[in-house]
Every structure is written in structure tokens, then in C-alpha cells.
Design goal:
The chain has 2 domains: about 45-80; about 80-185. It is about 85% helix and about 0% strand. It is built from 8 helices and no strands. It has helices spanning about 1-10, 15, 25-40, 45-70, 70-75, 85-115, 120-145, 150-185.
């Protein structure tokens, strides 16, 4: 191949050394400019305008999504509970909350009957506040990680602990109430 190229150049040496025909460079430059303008049809300005338009469309789409789906935004603001994970957990949560509420109703009845001192009421209020803080923290973690079994188990342990403490306190107070009533009956 190299030898063939050398042979062609040697045979046409005289033709290659001649000057180019008149106007050759001008015609070549015109064709080159025409070709360059055709390729440069989409310049930097075009691409910047395209990018700006695309960003505008994406932002508009995001705003429309937020505007037409306010329920979803409200739902994210609400605290997550076990019932938001599955129906099975909804039943478990219902059981625990019902039992805890029943215990708190009995607590209120004991307060009305005068069997709970002010100190005991303050102690129970502090315990309830601590349980509420723990519940809020667990709900935030559940909202961030709704499928994490560790968080779900922590929520179940929380409900179990709160129910146990509430039940224990109520049972002890009922015993005290019963002892006071039977002690008063034997003295009369």
C-alpha cells in the first residue's frame, strides 16, 4: 500500500506542484463556511434556551402536583401509627390503646372518689408525659422507616410497657381502695 502511494505521487509530481486553479481557495472557503454554518445551527444560545425551558416545565409540573395533591402533603404531616403499616397492626394498636384508655378511665374514677393523693397524681402525670414523648419519637421514626421491623417492634414494646405500667398502678390503687373500704367497715 505504501509503495502504491509513493508510485502515484512520483508519477503525478508535476501536476501536484502546479498552483491551484484561479478562485480555488475562495470556492473552498465558501463551501467550508457553508458547511460550518449548517453544523452550527444549534449554538450555545439554543441549548441554554432549551435547558431553561426544560427547568421551567419541571418546576411547573412540581407545583401542579403539589397543588392538586394536598391530601398527600397533609398525610405526610400527620404522625405515623402502627395502623398505617398494616391491618394486623391496626388491630393490635386498637387493643392496646383501648386497654390503656380503659385504665386511664379507672384512674380518673379513682381521682374522683378521692383515693389518689396529689403526689400520686403528679407522679402519674409525669409518667404519662414521658410515655407521650416516647410515643412521639417512635411515631417519627415509624414515619421515616415504615417498613423497619425494629421500629415496629419498638412501638409494640412501647404499648406493652405503657399498658403494663398503667395496669400495675391501677391494680395497686384498687387494692389500696379495697383495703381502706374494708378497714373502714371493720372499724365501724
Amino acid at each position: 500500500m505504501k509503495d502504491l502511494l509513493e508510485k502515484i505521487i512520483r508519477e503525478n509530481k508535476d501536476a501536484l506542484e502546479q498552483d491551484a486553479p484561479t478562485g480555488h481557495f475562495e470556492r473552498f472557503e465558501t463551501k467550508l463556511n457553508k458547511s460550518f454554518k449548517h453544523r452550527n445551527k444549534f449554538g450555545t444560545k439554543f441549548y441554554l434556551q432549551l435547558a431553561a425551558s426544560l427547568i421551567f416545565v419541571l418546576l411547573l409540573g412540581n407545583q401542579l402536583r403539589i397543588y392538586f395533591a394536598p391530601d398527600r402533603a397533609k398525610q405526610q404531616d400527620e404522625m405515623a401509627t402502627l395502623s398505617s403499616v398494616s391491618d394486623e397492626y391496626r388491630e393490635v394498636e386498637f387493643y392496646f390503646t383501648s386497654a390503656i384508655n380503659q385504665g386511664m378511665t379507672e384512674w380518673d374514677k379513682l381521682i374522683e372518689d378521692g383515693f389518689i393523693s396529689e403526689a400520686d397524681q403528679q407522679m402519674m402525670t409525669k409518667e404519662i408525659e414521658e410515655f407521650d414523648r416516647m410515643q412521639n419519637q417512635l411515631q417519627k421514626e415509624l414515619q421515616a422507616n415504615p417498613d423497619d421491623e425494629r421500629v415496629i417492634n419498638a412501638m409494640l414494646d412501647y404499648y406493652q410497657a405503657r399498658l403494663s405500667v398503667t395496669t400495675l398502678i391501677i391494680e395497686k390503687l384498687k387494692e389500696v381502695k379495697h383495703q381502706k373500704l374494708t378497714h373502714n367497715e371493720t372499724e365501724i
